[in-house]
Write a structure and sequence with these properties.
With 365 residues, the protein is α/β, with parallel strands linked by helices. The protein has helices at 37-47, 77-93, 152-172, 186-191, 206-209, 211-223, 245-257, 284-294, 307-315, 326-330, 334-342, 356-364; strands at 9-11, 14-16, 20-22, 53-60, 72-73, 99-105, 133-134, 148-149, 176-181, 228-234, 263-266, 298-301, 321-324. Helix 2 runs parallel beside helix 3. Bound molecules: flavin mononucleotide. Flavin mononucleotide is lined by residues 23-26, 57-58, 103, 180, 182-183, 232, 266, 301-304, 324-327.
Length: 365
């Protein structure tokens, strides 16, 4: 049996040994943006997972762009050094061919929040909060901060910060960059008419609303032309009058035109009014629509956790890759089980090879 999931893929010259990605997942465990020992163990663990693509969590391009006090960043020399230390270690133990990317982001109006396990809402006055920014002065929800609407000059500076963070990512040793245009963070706040009511060239028409993410992508490509660049979009707001899948296809096409090599198709996160029909593979149709409509490779994500389910998505041409998030938390060796289930001979670290037979036993159970 030949598995499509375990077949290699090349994106903008970067070779991945298979089509399994670890989805970016915030760990809320950084120290003023710097990777900690938690990240060291986490990245080393994922390095041995067998996933061809490891996407490190949302990594903020400036301090005020962090969701929480614990969010990862690439806005200082200390952040860059800490990322390099953890990444070097992860690469030393990685299954050969594994590629690591960082997800560059800015939380915008969803910044200055508590860690999820501390409540997840806006930081209180005694929790060292900071002022937040966005496309327009519209709060995410009742009780959340009303953001400062960025001026023209501040938007230009923001684009520069993404490019600077990309350079830091390259120096730290990342193989690729993913732009976080999803889940209601700054780039999506500009994309969505629910959060962007500007009347200048950064708001109004879709062409204007997508200007920021397109200019950020262009600036990153210019700063780091040798680094493959992908992007994650919330292809639907799941709110009437919000950002729609047809908009997502147009944005994907524009990003492709400036050199974005894949689109990870997620959804939601920009409005508490969203109604998400969550269920197994509930966003795969978005990856399929963007792949067909924009002619760009896509990564499907969201409640994909069974090997045959993942195989069917790529084998059926619905997406080029799949990303798994929570499955990797529960089982950081998920690709071992998937390989066993799909009849693929996955090479694991020799120190671990004696345990691999159990993946076969469990996948047969
Ligand atoms: C703990 C946790 C942290 C997350 N952090 C991020 C993040 O940093 N960036 C992002 O784009 N999505 C983030 N997500 C969303 C995941 O990448 C993924 O899209 C989502 O969990 C759905 O996939 P799954 O069903 O395989 O978990 C996070 C999800 C979890 C569970």
């Amino acid at each position: 049996m030949t598995s499509h999931l375990f077949s290699p893929i090349t994106l903008d010259g970067l070779d991945f040994p298979n089509r399994i990605a670890v989805a970016p997942m915030c760990q809320y465990s950084a120290d003023d943006g710097s990777a900690s020992d938690w990240h060291l163990q986490h990245w080393m663990n994922l390095a041995m997972s067998g996933a061809g693509m490891v996407t490190i969590e949302m990594t903020d391009v400036e301090r005020r762009g962090r969701i929480s006090h614990g969010c990862l960043g690439l806005y200082s020399d200390a952040n860059e050094d800490a990322a390099r230390r953890a990444l070097d270690a992860a690469k030393r133990v990685a299954i050969p061919g594994t590629k690591f990317g960082t997800q560059l982001a800015h939380a915008g109006r969803k910044a200055s929040n508590q860690r999820p396990w501390e409540g997840g809402g806006p930081l209180g006055p005694d929790q060292d909060p900071w002022p937040v920014v966005s496309a327009s002065a519209i709060a995410y929800a009742d009780g959340w901060q009303v953001p400062h609407a960025l001026s023209e000059a501040e938007i230009e500076a923001m684009i520069g910060r993404f490019a600077e963070a990309a350079l830091r990512a390259e120096r730290a040793g990342f193989d690729f960059i993913e732009l976080h245009g999803a889940h209601g963070y700054l780039l999506q706040q500009f994309l969505s008419p629910l959060s962007n009511v500007r009347t200048d060239r950064w708001g109004g028409s879709l062409e204007n609303r997508m200007r920021l993410i397109v200019e950020v992508a262009r600036a990153i490509r210019r700063a780091t032309p040798d680094l493959m660049l992908g992007a994650r979009l919330s292809v639907s707001d799941w709110v009437d009058g919000g950002f729609m899948p047809e908009d997502g296809i147009d944005v994907a096409r524009a990003l492709k035109d400036v050199g974005v090599a894949y689109i990870c198709c997620s959804s939601g996160g920009n409005s508490p009014l969203q109604k998400i029909p969550a269920g197994p593979g509930y966003q795969v149709h978005l990856a399929e629509a963007v792949r067909k409509g924009a002619g760009v490779p896509t990564r499907a994500v969201g409640m994909i956790d069974e090997p045959h389910q993942a195989e069917a998505i790529v084998n059926g041409g619905r997406a080029d890759m799949v990303a798994l998030g929570r499955a990797f938390i529960a089982d950081p060796r998920w690709p071992w089980r998937a390989a066993a289930a799909l009849g693929h001979d996955l090479r694991v670290a020799p120190q671990m090879a004696r345990g691999a037979y159990l993946a076969k036993k469990w996948s047969a159970a």
